[in-house]
Amino acid sequence: MEEEKNEVVLKNFIQKIIEEDIKNGKNGGAVITRFPPEPNGYLHIGHAKSICLNFGLAKQYGGRTNLRFDDTNPAKEENEYIDSIQADVKWLGFDWGGKPCYASDYFEKMYQLAVQLIKAGKAYVDDLSADEIREYRGTLTEPGKESPYRNRTVEENLDLFERMKNGEFPDGSKTLRAKIDMASGNLNLRDPVMYRIVRVEHPRQGNKWCIYPMYDWAHGLEDSIEGITHSICTLEFESHRPLYDWFLDQLPEMHHPQQIEFARLNLNYTVMSKRKLLRLVKEGYVKGWDDPRMPTVSGLRRRGYSPESIREFAARIGVAKMDSIVDIAMLEFCLREDLNKRALRRMVVLDPLKVIIDNYPEGQVEWFDGENNPEEENSGTRKIPFTKELYIEREDFMIDPPKKYFRLSPGKEIRLKHAYYITCNSYKTDENGKVTEVHCTYDPASKGGWTEDGRKVKGTSHWVSAQENIKVDVRLYDRLFTKENPDEDGDFISCINPDSCKVLEGCLAEVSLKEAKPGEYYQFLRQGYFSPDPDSTEEKLVFNRSVSLKDSWTPPRS
Questions:
Q1: Which CATH superfamily is domain 11-264 in?
Q2: Identified catalytic residue from 34, 152, 165, 274
């Protein structure tokens, strides 16, 4: 009984609506959702939440999800965006079962339905300009004014609308508007525009059309034509729902989906407006839509996020009816949790300092076994070469260390991961006092990193052979913005983090990384989780840090 009670508690309000509909036999028990992006930009983490919700609900209740492109505004749409959206949805692990749908597939149907509204006296052709329509619309406290063209006859409206379609009028000179109520308290019902004249070539329809449906006219019709049962939208569409309902009420032969609104994802230290993301790209603040600092799905993928971590994030934040801000640390936590189980462990030295083991045989190479992932029982091992000369991190040696410093220092013994205990005997510096090399001795009895006498050391360092290694470049990414709310001062550009990307060239990695490929996940010991970048070549591997090993972020000083 307790398990059943907990199961009910964990269900979100959308699941409860769907289950009640199934119980009552609504829609014959079918559950058909859709994900309807506009192809005017790349998907971001907020879209990922919606994808997980729509596809997840349909799968849970034995239904299906349509991927549909709302391509009603060709001036801002590109095939590049269509391709990227399909790639992102697939990468996240979802399948729409066949070909995607397009709003443009229904343009002829929408046109005929608009003619039907004109014949019913529910729509008219207006000659007001866009500015005049805005002026006539009124405000939240004042009713709007009716257009002087509102009472044209049905015959005149039919004639003008057809001529609009045939290209007889200049762009912007006429619109088709629904005839609803200019005094309505809901501004969306004040005779909204249904069609405008725009001579722009459509990515799929070419120049067939010079009038295009407005989003509010097209969206509900698309859901209806496709037989969507549960049209799940974010909260900003709540005030549009009465308009969608009004359109469908005037067309009784059309299927009437149920619209349900939920709170969109708001993430701190992030902007997710397509307009703002486009500005970042166009003005060169980032290197493209898939820049690893961007909150886009392609950016997260390139940075080294796994689809599993994003799905887990979507599940953890849940579905709510009220807007809130999610801490980006939650997203990073989900990534760490996932990569800890799947990432292969490797040793990479970012800031090399040479270590010479004076008592180790000249020219000898030993190969040690290192586990690929201690969290995964069957992950196997890889071979790590050990030689007389090595490199450790520069920060792992101090001449005069403070208390509780457990790395290497004069007279101090530490463990080299997977290899031997070593003790520092001396060091050399350059004319500026910078340490150039450290001389040590090793304990042959500590092979594998332990001794029979049980002697223990507190410090362990990762390392790379000076002779057997590969050079790699490493990109360390930080948050793109220095403020939790980048829009706080009215201009998000002003708080871009100047240190959001640091490139370290010539880092030294163990040879087992030579075959690393984009899409693979690695933990560089003590450095964080990394993934090979698509920029990598056979001559040079480039790794992006996905996330540090723990959350230690602090805003940079201004």
A1: HUPs (3.40.50.620)
A2: 274
